[in-house]
Design brief:
Elements: H1 10-14, H2 19-29, H3 34-41, H4 60-71, E1 78-79, H5 92-99, H6 102-105, H7 117-134, E2 138-139, H8 146-164, E3 172-176, H9 181-194, E4 197-201, E5 212-219, H10 230-238, E6 242-247, H11 258-261, E7 265-269, E8 285-289, E9 301-307, E10 312-317, H12 339-377, E11 381-382, E12 390-394, H13 397-409, E13 412-413, E14 415-416, E15 420-424, H14 431-445, H15 483-494, H16 517-520, H17 526-529, H18 541-558, E16 562-564, H19 570-587, E17 595-599, H20 605-612, E18 616-620, H21 630-639, E19 644-650, H22 662-671, E20 675-679, H23 692-695, E21 699-701, E22 722-724, H24 760-793, E23 798-799, E24 812-815, H25 825-834, E25 841-842, E26 849-852, H26 860-882, H27 899-903, H28 913-917, E27 936-937, H29 938-943
Parallel strand pairs: 1-13, 3-4, 3-5, 5-6, 6-7, 17-18, 17-19, 19-20, 20-21
Antiparallel strand pairs: 2-8, 7-8, 9-10, 9-27, 11-12, 12-15, 14-15, 16-22, 21-22, 23-24, 24-26, 25-26
Helix pairs in contact: 2-24, 3-24, 5-12, 5-15, 7-12, 7-15, 8-9, 12-14, 13-14, 18-24, 19-20, 21-22, 24-26
Length: 959
């Protein structure tokens, strides 16, 4: 290497295995070289014949310098656009201790409650805050965005209504004309495959059809007007029509809660609770509803249960409600939430408390009143007689353009309707800002008006809708209003959670790799964070340069020709990919093509997404080696050839194997007129070695929070862009406000045009700093690490599936069923916590197994600690089987062990404290992580569902 080239390459920092460790690991896996291992793992027939065409990699320093130049192409104007997105102030204590803290953003979804009590409490706070503000008893732990939350409510009530209706099909959903345009766009997308008819009109004059099952109202509406919907809600109730209200969460501090005046569900976006706009995301949507719908509502609910020691324990309640577990019977495909952002919004509520939230709301309203008063004095027609923070000024076209010119000259953005200008104020608005706004409108009329900042008394709200009920009364919203208190509270919660700052999280299919600090730093730069998603495109040239480059890189990596960055989760990407296939068939006059063939091993979101896209799911068998049964596939493809829409396939397979018949599989589908959708969950084993396009697929979604290094954030944020070939490119999703997508694109799948745009920077940086060689090496080392673990574990455990040459791909399945008479797979998962590790993926895709994926980021010493732990656990299993250990009271059945159990004066377990807590020497070297609770009692929590913050006494409800 030339001494003039930088030594500090990013690939050396991202890939955990050193050159010295490589030879030792190859010896263990019995391969002469890394290339030989790859040859024995990846079928030669699908290996790329040339390197990917990607730019030379940057060092970290070069990347940040380059990105600063790109960031400067964005113009950070003061945006008063509103439409569901507002300026907000992220308290520094939250930004530093949560948003910028890997102890919070590298956590996994809290399926293992014993090592997730911190984020579960933070999410319970979020649920409680939402429940209190909306006036409804149950809220989930966040959804993706307001548009998709509204669509989920529509789908939920559609299912509820028609489950009751045996003899007829009620399919009309009324949407008021003043619901946000992007929400209506997403509703149309979701409605079309389900045969729901969207009717948009005026709620004041709408007459219910006997087929109307639900309505959606905006509160305040998109023009900012606060309408009194109470009589209309009563009319809906009388007609057995479900009422969904899309609400501004901050406004509910001063407005009567929709749950009080008749809403059956309240949805919206918690973005203005301290989460930057980020040109559209990520933000945590909220969803609250009545108790009647708790078992059909979408998303995750955090609930209160007890642990094995009878202590209070938080967990994901009603876990079988996770819609993707219900497969083709699902009404939703939700997998990723927006946990990190919900945590931030909840902590914003904790920090400010009810008084602070109300003060922020009253101040925004007060400044809007001052602006309204001044505009009226100048003769402007401000049409909202009742408003919260948004004014609507009726102007002719000439005046609108004059004001637009003056606003841009002052670096100000408004929302411009057909005959009006809307101005939405927020927490970041100060008197000097309002003074500028007044001067713009004064100059437009040449009025010479002097701003009057006399405070307007009272509220410009209907007196009948003034909030008169307390909210956020739980002590958590009153005890942490100083920075010291909140900092320590956040740290206490963080200490209860295992994340990548503690140890590897070897979750098969979930790819918990390094989320490099340099990739994440720019997300909070003002040039990316403080931009509204509907600003004029010439103000976001930096963002669009990144989008163009990233789309190009992802197409090169996948072997496709076009890309949509809009889907804001992996499951959303599945859905978008299937909708493009559906649109393709419809455009070619093949409306009848609606059959999706899906292997039995597929992740549950696959069949759920297919049903949401209006397809009929036909399951294809897998053989004894975990591969798709090609004969069964061919038979079912022949049987359904006239109606075949697509095959959904994961590659490498969900069993962690590169199936050699994959090209034949794709050809079988294509010969019968179908398309091949490839699930990108296992893309980390493809990059640089093969590609979906080269293999023969037509569309692939990419989990950027897996292969491309966006953090999991405790269950979100995520991004799931899709790449497609030429045949599907015309059907990529469009957007209501921003030009994007194909010429014949489907309606939007997300509220914002580029999904969670700000976190696309992470994947962009990942690719720019690794380059072609680094990306390819990442794939190779991911495969090496998986096979190293396989080789070390095989003397003690059976690895369930392997390729034709005995290799695993980037993940492997360890079969624990042979031990089921002694211990369960869950026992092993919980016992791993005592060794300082998160459990691998449990009982998927095969019950009674664990699926392990180490990723390329882990070093040999960490891999060895993990293997040592599992090998020691095997010895503990043998002790039970031989009778050396008690068959009931043993370290596996009692796992995990908390510090309170270990330190108890009345410790009476038949094995020593050291065996329970420190079974291997490395745990005494700083690797010990103490689970906060004992094994959680899921059944108790489901029987006694508590999903808001109750008094401590009520945690212990009698069964």
């Amino acid at each position: 290497m030339s001494k003039l080239k930088p030594y500090d390459r990013f690939a050396k920092r991202h890939i955990g295995i050193s050159e010295d460790e490589l030879s030792a690991m190859l010896s263990v896996v019995k391969a002469d070289s890394l290339d030989q291992l790859i040859y024995e793992t990846v079928p030669d027939s699908i290996r790329l014949k040339k390197a990917m065409n990607l730019p030379e990699p940057f060092t970290e320093y070069e990347y940040l310098r380059e990105l600063r130049e790109i960031a400067n192409l964005n113009k950070v104007f003061k945006s008063y656009i509103g439409m569901g997105y507002s300026g907000t102030i992220t308290p520094a204590v939250i930004a530093r201790n949560i948003f910028h803290n890997p102890g919070w953003y590298t956590q996994y979804t809290p399926y293992q409650a014993e090592i997730a009590q911190g984020r579960l409490e933070a999410l319970l706070n979020f649920q409680t805050m939402v429940s209190d503000l909306t006036g409804l008893p149950i809220a989930n732990a966040s959804l993706l965005d307001e548009g998709t939350a509204a669509a989920e409510a529509m789908a939920m009530f559609y299912g509820v209504r028609n489950k009751k209706s045996k003899d007829h099909h009620d399919n009309i959903f009324f949407v008021d004309q003043h619901v946000y345009g992007q929400t209506i766009d997403v509703l149309r997308t979701r409605a079309l495959p389900l045969d729901i008819e969207i009717v948009v009109g005026d709620w004041k004059t709408y007459e219910f059809s006997e087929k109307t099952f639900g309505v959606l109202l905006q509160y305040p509406n998109k023009q900012g007007s606060v309408e009194d919907y109470r009589a209309f809600a009563e009319k809906c109730k009388a007609s057995e029509v479900y009422v969904t209200v899309a609400a501004d969460l901050l406004s509910l501090a001063v407005l009567k809660a929709p749950g009080v005046w008749g809403a059956d569900a309240v949805v919206g976006n918690s973005q203005r609770f301290g989460v930057p706009m980020g040109y559209g995301g990520p933000h945590a949507a909220f969803f609250a509803t009545k108790e009647d719908y708790k078992r059909v509502m979408p998303g995750r609910i955090i609930g209160v249960s007890i642990d094995s020691n009878n202590n209070p324990a938080l967990r994901m309640a009603l876990q079988t409600r996770e819609q993707h577990i219900r497969r083709e019977k699902a009404t939703s495909n939700i997998c990723t939430a927006q946990a990190l952002l919900a945590t931030m919004a909840g902590m914003y509520g904790v920090y400010h408390g009810p008084k602070g939230i109300r003060a922020i709301a009253e101040r925004a309203h007060g400044l809007a009143q001052v602006l309204d008063k001044n505009l009226r004095k100048m003769g402007y027609n401000q049409v909202n007689s009742h408003f919260f923070d948004t004014l609507c000024i009726r102007v002719d076209e000439a005046m609108k353009e004059r004001i637009r010119h003056l606003a841009l000259a002052n670096e100000v953005n408004f929302f411009y309707g057909t005959d009006c200008i809307q101005i939405s104020l927020d927490e970041t608005t100060f008197e000097e800002d309002v003074d500028i706004l007044i001067s713009i409108f004064s100059e437009a009329k040449e009025a010479g008006h002097t701003a009057d900042f006399t405070v307007v008394e009272g509220f410009t709200l209907p007196s009948s809708l003034h909030r008169d009920v307390d909210y956020m009364t739980h002590p958590v919203f009153h005890n942490y209003q100083t920075e010291s208190k909140l900092m320590r509270y956040i740290k206490r919660l963080e200490n209860r959670d295992l994340s990548l700052v503690h140890s590897m999280i070897a979750l098969g299919s979930c790819t918990m790799k390094l989320n490099a600090a340099v990739e994440l730093m720019p997300v909070s730069w003002a040039e990316f964070a403080d931009i509204h998603p509907f600003v004029p495109v010439d103000q976001v040239q930096g963002y669009h340069e990144i989008f163009r480059d990233l789309e190009g890189y992802l197409c090169e990596i996948t072997g496709f020709t076009a890309c949509s960055l809009q889907p804001n989760s992996g499951a959303q990407g599945e859905y978008a990919g299937l909708l493009t296939i559906r649109a393709y068939h419809h455009a070619n006059g093949n409306d009848h093509r609606n059959v999706a063939l899906i292997p039995s091993s597929a992740h549950g979101t696959n069949p759920a997404s297919a049903v949401m896209a209006g397809m009929e799911v036909i399951v294809v068998a897998c053989d004894d080696h975990g591969n798709i049964d090609v004969d069964d596939l061919r038979a079912k493809a022949d049987q359904h050839k006239d109606n075949l829409a697509c095959l959904m396939v994961t590659y490498p397979s969900t069993h962690g194997v590169f199936e050699t018949s994959i090209r034949e599989i794709c050809e079988i589908i294509h010969e019968r007129g179908g398309k091949v959708y490839m699930d990108g969950a296992n893309m980390n084993a493809q990059v640089g070695l093969t590609s979906p396009g080269f293999i023969g697929a037509d569309v692939c979604h990419l989990n950027l929070h897996k292969t491309f290094a966006i953090p999991h954030g405790g269950g979100g944020p995520g991004m799931g862009p899709i790449c497609v070939n030429d045949s599907l490119a015309p059907f990529l999703p469009k957007h209501h406000f921003v030009a994007t997508g194909g010429d014949h694109g489907i309606h939007a799948v997300s509220s914002a045009p580029f999904g969670s745009a700000s976190i696309l920077l992470i994947s962009y940086g990942y690719i720019r700093m690794l380059g072609e060689a680094g990306l390819t090496d990442s794939t190779k080392y991911a495969i090496l690490n998986a096979n190293y673990i396989k080789s070390r574990l095989e003397p003690a455990y059976h690895v369930l599936y392997v390729g034709e040459m005995g290799r695993s791909a980037h993940e492997l399945i360890v079969d624990l069923r042979p031990f089921k008479a002694v211990v369960s797979a869950e026992d092993v998962a919980k016992r791993l916590m005592d060794y300082g590790f998160h459990a691998p993926t449990l009982s998927f895709p095969v019950a009674g197994t664990i699926m392990i994926e180490p990723t390329e980021s882990e070093d040999k010493a960490e891999l060895d600690r993990f293997c040592d732990a599992l090998l020691q656990i095997r010895k503990e299993i043998d002790e039970i089987a031989s009778g050396e250990a008690d068959p009931v009271v043993n370290v596996l059945h009692n796992a995990p062990h908390t510090v309170n159990v270990i330190m108890a004066d009345d410790y009476a377990l038949p094995y020593g404290r050291e065996k329970a807590a420190f079974p291997l020497p490395y745990l005494r070297e700083g690797y010990k992580f103490w689970p906060w609770i004992g094994r959680v009692n899921n059944a108790h929590g489901d029987r006694n569902l508590i999903c808001t913050c109750p008094p401590i006494e009520s945690y212990m409800t009698e069964e």
